[in-house]
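Checklist before submission:
- one chain only
- standard amino acids only
- sequence pasted in full

Submission:
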Amino acid sequence: MSTLSPEQIDDMKVCGKILKNALDQTVLVLKAGVTTIALDRIAEESIVNAGARPSFKNYFVEGVGSYPSSLCVSINDEVVHGIPNESRVIKNGDVVSLDLGAEYHGVCTDMARTIIVGEATEQIKSLVNTTRICLENAIKEVAVGKNIGNIGAAVEKTALAAGFAVIKDYVGHGIGEKPHMAPSIPNFGKYGSGPKILDCTALAIEPMITLSAEYTTPADDGWTAKTEDGSISAHFEHTVVIENGVVTVVTL
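Returned file contents:
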C-alpha cells in the first residue's frame, strides 16, 4: 500500500473532478440508438480537454494486450471491460455500466456507474440500486487503522441481504501512481481481515453485483468479462483518498 505526498493527493482531487465531469458528460448522451464508440469519444474528449489523460487507453495486460479504448462499456451480462465499437448500439432496456479512468500529473483516479436505459423490471432496478448502496456502505468502512476486509464484508452483507450475488474473480484495488496497485479489495470477506488501511493512501472501491453469478467467463475479445450464467450485472466505483485521517471521495 503506497503512500502519497500532499501534492499527489491534491492532484488526485483535481483528477477526480475531471473524471467525474467526463462521466457526467457521457451519461448525458447515453440513450437508445447511441453507439458505444460515441460514448467512448465523448469521455475521452472531456478528459483530454481538461488536461488529463485517459488511463485505460493502451493499458497493457500480459497475455491479453493493450486495451484499445478510453471507456469501458459493459452491457447487461457483461460485468467489466466491455470494448466500445461502431456497431454496438444501445437499446431500450439495456443495463449499461460505464467504467472510466484518468491520469493527471502522474496520479490516477477511477470510477464506474451503471445506468438503466429506458424501462426495466423491479428486480433489475433493485439490483442497480443495491449495487449503489453497496458502494456507499463500503466507503463507510474506510478509516485509518481499519482492515481492508471490512470493505468487502460490507459489500457482501448488503448484496446478499437483497438476494443478489457478488462477483469474486474481479476486485477493487489501490490506486495512485498507477491505475491498479496493491492492495486488492475483494467485494466479499470478513470484518477484521486483510491489511490495515494507512493514512495518505487511495483506494478504488468497486462493487460488482449480479442477479445470481459469482464468477465470470471471458468473451471472444479477450477483455470483456461476462457473468458465467448470463445474469445481469451492475457496477459502481469511486476513488477515495485518506489524508490526515480524513476520507474524501474524490470522484463524487
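Reviewer check: Residues 6-28 form the longest helix (23 residues).
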